[in-house]
């Protein structure tokens, strides 16, 4: 399942991010690709510990922390330090690949299991052509008949998708696509269980909006947490 999270960055944070990206020391994305991905990867990335990347990480993590849907949808145990990429000109696409199951954050030695992948779009979609994130379906056997989902979002919005999926970024044929990408290790490893908890929580939010803190809402909140207690690994 793909989940869209609107407005992770508001207008001020987005303007600041775009300013930082404009002066950033981009390098070839091959620097962080495994051998399979390296054959299809043709983009640029920020060195993960450059000043711009560190300032951008603070902006992105702050936006995620303030967003109620992000926590509910991912139930995060660890969030990999956000990275940043650029597609345009001669470096404009990333073919079908899978992300490594475990990522090491540079310098820290911290390992993150990539249960969930996140792409946060940072350029106005009207300013570039192409650049859709295409995620293959998760049906048994994948490939034929499993379907693909194509995503290109407003600047400041993010998409979450299971780390297990084959995915690509379509060639950018005009302008520049800027994005942040990173992974989440969830307290709840099973995609199916995470999905149930997310649906449960969304309906609880709606119930509260409609009726306030009713006895039923309190009881169902208890049930939600009892399920989370069963399934969470902290
Ligand atoms: Ni990827």
Q: How large a portion of the residues is in β-strands, by DSSP E?
A: 25-35%
Terminal CA distance: 23 Å
What oligomeric assembly is this protein in? single chain
The portion of residues assigned to helices is 25-40%
Q: Number of helix segments?
A: 6
Q: What radius of gyration results from the CA coordinates?
A: 18 Å
Q: Which word captures the global form?
A: globular
Give the helices and strands as they follow along the chain. EHEHEEHHEEEEEEEEEEEEEHH
Major sheet size, sense and barrel closure? 8 strands, antiparallel
Write a structural description.
The chain has 234 residues and is an alpha+beta fold. Helices cover 33% and strands 28% of the residues. The strands form four sheets. Strands 1, 2, 4, 5, 6, 10, 14 and 17 form an eight-stranded antiparallel beta sheet that branches. The longest helix is centred in the last third of the chain and has 21 residues, at 191-211. The relative contact order is 0.18. The protein binds nickel (II) ion. Nickel (II) ion (NI) is lined by residues 97, 99, 167.
